[in-house]
Amino acid sequence: MFAELKASQFLFxxxxxxxxxxxxxLINDDIKAKEVRLLDAQGDQVGIMSLTEAKAFAYDQGxxxxxxxxxxxxxxxxxxxxxxxxxxxxxxxxEQRKKQQTVEIKEVQLSCRIDKHxxxxxxxxxxxxxxxxxxxxxxxxxxxxxxxxxxxxxxVIARFQEACAEVSTVDKKPALEGRQxxxxxxxxxxxxxxxxxxxxxxAEAAE
Length: 207
What we know:
The protein has 207 residues and is α+β, with helices and mostly antiparallel strands. It has helices at 11-16, 51-60, 82-99, 116-131, 150-163, 190-206; strands at 26-27, 35-39, 45-50, 64-69, 76-80, 105-111, 135-141, 168-177, 180-187.
């Protein structure tokens, strides 16, 4: 009965070894166990046999004997093309790294007396950063006697937040740090961004 079990019933072994990198797997002569549980290339169980018999089985099929679950009793080995396995594992890792987006914090500097052209240019730059998935640190510096009129800085910050509202949300509200007022914007999630775009298209169509 035990010999008829399929590899799927040893899945917990295979998952247990998923944290072991391909470079750490024991293959062929590196395997030291006297007895192993052997799976064929399709993942079906062949049975429990000596290491010598298991290696002979793998070699007869032109593949390697790979220990996929050394913690099991006896260790679980599979007859498989190790070179192909390594290639597929490396390819999978590379694809996962490509999908991982590195979030950077970009900075945009404002002033209380910023003109409209400069304001629009910096707002567009911030929108570009946010659209690329980066956070934006908005920094407004008070010069000279401007510290006595912080409401002007708050107004500029509020306008900037509104200008970027379609692609961002406030991650950290404006706060005074020394002679600077700092605000952090974070990108909207794709779903929320899409919802806003959809609503805007609906409104434009209604007009």
